[in-house]
Each structure stands twice: as C-alpha cells, then as structure tokens.
Amino acid sequence: MVDLTTRIGALTLQNPIMPASGTFSRDMAEVFELDMLGALVTKTITAEVRGGNPTPRVCEVDGGMLNSIGIPSKGLGAFLANELPAYAPYRAPLIVSVSAPSIDGFAEIVSQLNLPGIAGIEANISCPNIEEDGKAFAMRPDTTARVVEALRRETDLPLWVKLTPNTGETVEVAQAAEAARADALVVANTILSMAVDARTRRPKLGNLMGGLSGPAFKPIALRMAYQSVRSVDIPVIGCGGISTVEDVAEFLVVGACAVQVGTASFINPTAMPRLRDDLQGFLAEEGYASVSDFIGSIRDGAPGDAVRFMEAAP
Amino acid sequence: MLSPAQLEPSKERSIHEVVGTVVTHRDAASGYRLLELDVPQEALDCRPGQFFHILCPVDGQSQPFLRRPMSIFGYDRDAGRLSFLYKVSGIGTAALSGLDEGDRLNVVGPLGNGFTIPQNARHLVLVARGVGLATLAPLAQEARRLGLGLKAICSARSPEHLMSIDHFRALGAEVIPVTDSEGTSDPEQLRSLLDGLAEADEMDMIYTCGSNRLLKLCQQVGRDAGIPGEIALEQQMACAIGMCQCCVRPFRRGGAVVQERVCREGPVFDIQEAMEW
User: Fold this and answer.
1) Among A86, A211, B146, B191, which lies 20 to 30 A Cα-Cα from B246?
2) Domain for residue B117, yes or no?
3) Tens digits of residue pLDDT in A242-259
4) Which residues of A touch B55 (CB under 8 A)?
5) Contact A281 B3 (CB under 8 A)
C-alpha cells in the first residue's frame, strides 16, 4: 500500500483528497463514508444570515460551470448550534470556511471559532461575489496582508487562506499571506466569468456574472498553484477543476501537498473516494511508496524567478 | 477518466451513483420519450415523487456538462427496473434521446423527499398536464399497493395529446381526461370537477405538478375544502444532493417567504406554501 498521508503544517491528513468549500455538506454522508476523506471543508459561513443571489445560480459552459450562489448562510449562531455538533462523530479534521465583508467582521467571526472540533480555518478572502465594489481582499497584496494579520491575531488554529484567480498579482498576494503568517494557501477559488443566452440575449446567471469552475478552469488553477509553490515556503493546497487522478497528480507534481475537489462531485458524487483509490493505484504504478515523495517532483529544469512572476503568456 | 471501481451501490447509504443499462427507449406521446433502465436493486428503494440525477451522454454533437434531474416515471425493485418519461427540450435531453438499447447510463439517486400519503386517506386525486403527469405516475403505483382509490385528472390540448392515461389505467387509477379542444380543461370546469369530488368525500389529498394554473387552482380548492395537497416542483440543479444551494425556490411559511432547496427539502412541497413562478 502506498502511504497517502500528507502534512499541511501542523495537520496530518490520512490522504490528500478533500472537498472544496461550497461543494460539500453532511448530505454527502448519504453517498459515501465521510471519514475516508483527508479533511472535511464546510461551506463558507458568515456571521450574519444571508439569503444568497437570485436564481438561476448556476449554468453550464463547455467543460465547466459558472456559479453565483452568493454565500447563503444561516449565520454563525446556527452553525455553532447545529452544524458543529453534527460533525463531532467524524474523525476527519474539520476545516471551517469563513467570510466577511470587512476586516473587523472577519476577525470577529474567526475569534469565535477557537473551539474543540474545529481543526482549522479556511479564510475565503477570494469569493468574487460579495465584496463591496466587487473587489475581493485576495485581489491585492495589501488588503490580503491586512486581513490575514487580523485573523492571525484571533486564532492559533491552522489558518488556510484561499486565493483568487481574479488578480494579476498571484505571487505578491501569496507572499503577502505568508508574511502575515498564514499556515497554508488554497489555490484557487473560481474565476469571474459570464455566459449569455444568444437567443434570449439574457445573461444566464441571475447575478449576471459568476465563477467558472470545472475542467475548463484547471490549467489556470494549476499555473497559480505552481507559481505559489515557487514563491512561498508554506504548504499549498491545489483546487480548481480536479476531476481525474491525472488532475490530482498534476497538482501534486507542481508541489501542492493536498487537493480540493469541487465541481467533479456534482458530476460524480463518488468522485472523491474514487480519486483516493485511483491515487493509490497511480502512485503504485509510478513506483512511489508514499505520496510525499511524489509531491513537488516536477521536471521543469528548475527555472528561476521568471516563472514565479510570470503574469502573461510569453 | 475516473475509475468505475466504486460504482457498486452500498447497502448502508441511501443515495447511489450507479450505471444502468438501457432496456427500452422509445417514443411515447408526441415529443416524449420513454426510457427504461436495468439498475442494481439497491438504487431502487424509491418513493413516489423522488428523482434521479442523470449523466447525459457526451456525443459528437454536444457535451452537456451538468447532470439533469429527472423525476421517476416508474420503478420496480424486484425486476430491477427504473423508467423515465421525458421531453426532448435541450442539449441534455437531446443527447439522452440518442441512447440505444444496451447502452449504459450513469444515474444518481433516488433523491429528494417524495409525496406523503396521509394515514387515514382513502381517496387520492392528482391533476396535471404534459410531463407533470410523469412525475405523478408513481403515486398510482403506490396507491394500488396500499389499496387506495386514485383519480387521475389528465389534462391536454386534445384527446390525441393525452399522456400516460393507459399507464394510469393499467395501475388501477380512474382516469378523468380533460382537454382544451373539448372545452373541459379550463379552470372553471376543473374547479367544479374538484369541488364535486370534495363534496362527495372522494378527495382526501390532492397532488399536482408542472403548471402554475393548476397550482393556483389546487391551492384554492384545497383551502376552501380544507383538503391537504402537495406539489412537485422543478428547478435547475447542479449537485442535486443539497450541497451547492443552487436550486432554491421561495415558499410562503409563517407569514414570511423562505428559500428552500428543491433537491433536498423537496422536490415535493406543501401546496399551500408553494409560490407561483
């Protein structure tokens, strides 16, 4: 058996497969045993109750989908009263994804999550839908630094910061998060996109624009994960369009130490357990005894800084 | 490609991703197709009103990305059979319509909450039009199993367009056809038909699907006669399991409007809480 255990800072995961926030809930226990996952990642919670965006909230495009769900949330109180206790029976570490419209709001919600049963925080500073003026914290290094510093003051839990592809400053944002003492980066959230019905001439999403996910987005997320790995020393968790074991392997090869699977679970609800098993088989075939030996094994000729800061196709 | 290794259904879990085999696939009423699959028994612990999430095949013409939710037209656990009645209306159903006997199809289900049949009910009434009748068909199957009477008011443009009436009759339902061409399907006529059933104490529960006009009518009849009812609703879905929050619809409850997921809290809802669309 190939050893699939992987480390993300202080956390050790039994395998590198976990859900992406927003594509997972306890409902999934009706499909497979949740404890087979490396970690459980909640849908983003907010302090306040939020209704979410108008429908239609999703539409399909070639090789992927757009969503503008809008972070509907029952609020922090409901999460603490109902969700957190319901996760208690699971052994897989629980990562709570949080968001807020301001730095103070972000710090406030994280300060209330230093609780038994929560193994880590994922700061969703990259959701393109709800930031005032449409700009997410993770679009710029200075706002990333300020919010991550504020969160770091409020918690000693492992703090993962989820980056956005909606920036021209991937490396600078990644380094700002690291400098503000994030424990890991999740790379990346969805990329702002649009689809229009050519016949009715109406936008296909109620919110007009939304985030692209699925296989069509994977090369962008992979490029960002690679740039991030090259520019920081903290662990990087790959996320974006991962559907097959080859996709998982690509992210691991560029140096991601774990992956999040999202849209693929909508197409195949059993995708995550199958990817875990397929990864075993893949690594055995490739002659690896452990996933940690495979992580970062890219044969890229060790280029220098140019790759890290590349923001345009050469 | 994902390996198919874990597609064997687990007996402990209620939602299954399984690969079925097409047994029958033929034209039904005008524009409708009947698809019958052979699927593992474990995936057939179904209740009327539930649905499956179907991975439409990718063909040379189109590549539907998301699954398509489809209500169950019929299920037979002992025979290992699951059927759907659908209308070709977009790239997903167009791709589906090209499946031949013997082809394989990946389906996820059964999903959602089905219809309730009150314990003391003796007479069930359903009223629907077009593909809405397909969603209600398993109620006739269940009514027969429970030894309850069921009247199916089947509405259509003309007698030639009436769907599923032979199917309902074969399941022991009393079919009441109403059509636009014969002038029997307008709201006033249906209202008096339903009021008559209520007065005769032949309607303990009313079910509908697929039409705003019928929803409004059933709400009025149900409210005036104090008869409970349910409606099966549709909404565009991504995951269909309750995770993605895309399939919400508004409902009236306790003086407020609440958003509920059609896939998880539904697709069957209290008829008085449903809102027109």
Assistant:
1) A86
2) no
3) 999 999 999 999 999 999
4) 267-268
5) yes
One domain for residues B138 and B257: yes
Residue A103 lies in a domain: yes
Alpha-carbon gap, residue B238 to B140, rounded angstroms: 29
Which A-chain residues 251-270 have CB contacts (< 8 A) with chain B? 265-270
Mutation target among A42, A59, A270, A274 for the B interface, most CBs of B within 10 A: A270
Please give the interface size between A and B, counted as residue pairs whose CB atoms are below 8 Å apart: 117
- Asked, for residue A160, whether it belongs to a domain, the answer is yes
CB B156 within 8 A of CB B175: no
What pLDDT digit, counting tens, does each position of A71-115 carry? 999 999 999 999 999 999 999 999 999 999 889 999 999 999 999
With both helix axes pointing from N to C terminus, report the angle between A170-179 and A141-154 in degrees, rounded to the nearest 10: 30
B104-111 and A64-67 as β-strands: parallel, antiparallel, unpaired? unpaired
Which phi and psi angles does B147 have, rounded to 5°?
A: 70, 30
Q: How far is B106 from chain A (nearest CA, A)?
A: 9
> What pLDDT, on the 0 to 100 scale, is given for residue A128?
47
A303 touches B: beta carbon within 8 Å: no
B241 belongs to a structural domain: yes
What's the total number of domains in chain B? 2
From chain A, pick out residues whose CB is under 8 angstroms from the CB of B245.
43, 52, 57, 69, 72
The values of phi and psi at residue B130, to 5°, are 55, -135
**B111, B131, B166 - which closes a domain:** B111
Residue B67 lies in a domain: yes
Residue of B nearest to A216 (CA): B65
The Cα of A113 is separated from the nearest Cα of chain B by a number of Å equal to: 22
Stretch 1-30 of chain B: residues touching chain A, C-beta under 8 Å: 1-3, 5-7, 10, 13-17
Boundary residue ending a domain (B66, B81, B111): B111
Q: What is the CATH number of the domain that holds A75?
A: 3.20.20.70
Q: Is residue B154 located within the same domain as residue B96?
A: no
Q: Please enumerate in sequence order all residues whose Cβ is within 8 A of that of A77, keeping only pairs 6 or more positions apart, or say none.
A: none
A28 to chain B, any CB pair closer than 8 A? The answer is: yes
Question: Would residue A11 count as lying in a domain?
Answer: yes
- Mean pLDDT is lowest, of A293-297, B3-7, B29-33, for B3-7
Residue A208 within any structural domain of the chain: no
The Cβ-side half-sphere exposure at B39, using a 13 Å CA radius, reads: 31
Domain containing residue B198: CATH number: 3.40.50.80
Chain A CB contacts of B241 below 8 Å: 25, 27-28, 30-31, 269
Q: Which residue of A has its CA nearest to B265?
A: A27
In a domain, B133, yes or no: yes
Amino acid at site A180: A
With 0-12 / 13-18 / 19 or more C-beta atoms within 10 angstroms meaning exposed / middle / buried, residue A220 is middle
Catalytic center residues of A = 127
- Domain count along chain A: 1
Structural domain span for residue B162: 123-270
* Shared domain check, B190 and B216: yes
